[in-house]
Structures are given as C-alpha cells and as structure tokens.
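Page 42, continued from yesterday. The earlier attempt failed because a stray header line got pasted into the input along with the sequence. Redoing it now with the clean sequence only.
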Amino acid sequence: MPSPRVRLYARPDCHLCDEARRQLLDLRAGGLDFELEEIDIETDDRLLRSYLERIPVIELEGEIVSELHLDPDGLRSRLATLSA
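This time it went through. Structure tokens are written below.
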C-alpha cells in the first residue's frame, strides 16, 4: 500500500511555511509514514489567490487538515484513520 500523500502549500520567505515544513519533516523522521509534496503557490495564479492568506495549508489525500499552523496531533489522527 502506498504511503499517504501530504501536500504543503507554501511560498518562499514564509516563516510559518518554514515552521510547518520543519514540523512535517520531524513527524516523518519520528516514524509517521507519509509522502511529502511541497507546492509553491507563487507558480500558479489560482493557487496564489486561493491560498495566499491561509498558508501554510496542509492537505492529506485531498482534504485540507490545517491552515496557518500545523496541528501535529490532528495530522497524526487523520493518518491513523487512513491506515486502519
């Protein structure tokens, strides 16, 4: 079974995005199994309009699970339901 996909919608020079990225990498290093894909919202006008005021936005398998700040416990529980 493939690892669940977590998408981080972010942009360069965003300290909240940097913090969310660090937390996601720490969670994965700590044993959570997921594929991390980072999407730069500045490369797409539609994404920039949709997410600019909400980044970082974390999406798990197509569902937004966090905005502005990562909720590590919420992500853990969502990942657990996918593997159950």
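Notes: The helical segments are 15-29, 45-51, 72-83.
Reminder to self: strip header lines before submitting.
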